[in-house]
Amino acid sequence: MTRLDRLTPALLTAPSALVYAGALLVPLAGVLALSLHGFDFEKGVLPGWGLANYQDLFTDPLFGEALARTFRIAGLTTLICLLVGVPEAWIIHRMDPRWRGPMLLVVVGPLLVSVVVRNFGWMVLLGTNGLVNQALTALHVPGAPFRLMFTEGAVVVGLVHVMVPLVVLSVWASLGRLDPVLERAATSLGAGRFTVFTRVVLPNVMPGVMAGALMVFCLSASAFATPAMLGGKRLKVVSSMTYNEFLNTLNWPLGAALATVLMAAILLATLLWTRLVEKRALRRLGEVAQGGPA
Amino acid sequence: MTAPAFLTLDSLGKDYGTVTAVRDVSLSVAPGEFLGLLGPSGCGKTTTLQMIAGFEAPSRGRILMEGRDLTGTPPAQRGIGLVFQSYALFPHMTAAENVAFGLEMRRVPRPERGRRVAEALAQVRLGHLAERFPRNMSGGQQQRVALARALVVEPRLLLLDEPLSNLDAKLREEMQVELRELQRRIGVTTVLVTHDQAEAMALCDRVAIMQGGRVVQIDAPWQAYDIPADAFVADFLGRSNRLPARAASGHAEAAGHRFCLPPELADRQGDILLTIRPERLRIRCERAPESPPGLEGRVQARLFLGGFWLYTVETALGAFAVMAQNTGATPLDEGAAVTLDWDAHSLRRLEPA
Ligand SMILES: Nc1ncnc2c1ncn2[C@@H]1O[C@H](COP(=O)(O)OP(=O)(O)OP(=O)(O)O)[C@@H](O)[C@H]1O
Ligand SMILES: [Mg+2]
Questions:
Q1: What is the CATH number of the domain that holds B106?
Q2: What is the pTM of this model?
């Protein structure tokens, strides 16, 4: 009986653990193993083992550039998403209940549109003869038309567009758990609207802000379609390089090495984030952040 | 009240769409007074308090503080200290930081701030818990932090919304004594909202009893208890017995039982609704010889309240609640035949509610 009791949790979690292992760990191990093989254009994947792929990557200035760009884009996207999404969630939260539902739907809108359609939309807007440039030219802005497409800026705009809802929804959930009386308490003590937000609301919705930031960062760093479409061929990020190795060059081991490095880098960044930022922000709320990222 | 009013509510009303939360509240509070706003759930107490604090805009009427109309003064500028039913302490701040918040908003320089925070916490006897977070404090401690936070800014008016309702009975009693003592010492004008009649009677100089968005009586607690304005107040403040009767020439008659009316009711004629408090009734065993005539009945139930026995006595006039002091004598048994009597001046006439 007692033995069965002790086994029960393991038995109950076994199915999901199996699915998890089968669908995630095995392929990951496969990628890792693949990245340790060599490659030849005539013979394909070579049987030997080694770290040659990684050596190649870390001595390749193009890869360094792409890695830096990946994180620059992800970081900037996260920052802008927070600056836009957190106040946005707050404003919707304060709206008349009649308007909240429709507004949330508007906010979630970008998530309902296919990534390809959405990015084509941005291409139409940002092209040299696009709407934005037409408007700027019509307004006689000096220097117009600008080169907007195929810039890091275009990629960030495209990513922010789809990532902001994640921040809004995650902060929204936290706001729902916030005692509305706290705002009145702060106001009755003489705090203005802005102070109420920065001193009382924001510290208490930090869990939502942190979770949103983490989601946006991870998704932006590994985004493929948007950088490929709005950044073009020359602005390589790690995920588009990986795609290229797998499907164009057919150098699978090198692609696997790229994927492994990207994953490790994101993992490292999130670990640093939870250690350095999140823990500090949540300590006051008595919510000790759980060690690993989701 | 002879002193000029500090706070005046003038025909105050509040509608939420078709729902009328507050119908018509007019009252005034003297400087330094402790006023209780007492009424059953949903009668509009919180709404009234939130209108005074400035968080709800009145639909009708005016709020005057020291003669000045408060309409249009934002809550942050009213100088009102507010203690919420849920305390509303800032969870991410320590007790000291919570108390310091209002001083920071008033740009009190740091050294003075520290001194005043320490004083305020000492006042509620929490000096030793200054660095604790609210989540690590008991309900009573949190309540005292909330009180210190409201008082440290030296508000002109203190509003308390059921501040003790989350505490257990023992702690609540302790806090009542402390609250009363603190309010006396500081002398801040205070409005306390509660649905607990015992609490209102224990704490307040005067109570305003509300029903359905209206104030039905404002009096000192013992006056309201002794001479309730209507049947609702009589039932809401403590227990009371109803006695519908017919009056004629200084006497009243009900179900064949005849008794004297007090002098002020002597000229009443016709149907009359009388009431009497349980502790004004005398109960005795029927067997007592040559005793004056009284209302005969039978003990239906008895409840031991420590200092008192509460009997329910079934009589020809209906069930009566009778409070008898616990003198150490053997209590009456359930089912015992008893006689009730009372002094004529203990009877009160009620306007039917
Ligand atoms: N925002 C609102 N919208 C609609 N009706 C409301 C609103 N706030 C309060 N009411 C109604 O107004 C009435 C008075 O509410 P209020 O909160 O003032 O009661 P209360 O006396 O404080 O009761 P309690 O003792 O339960 O706290 C209630 O019937 C309530 O349903
Ligand atoms: Mg209330």
A1: 3.40.50.300
A2: 0.81
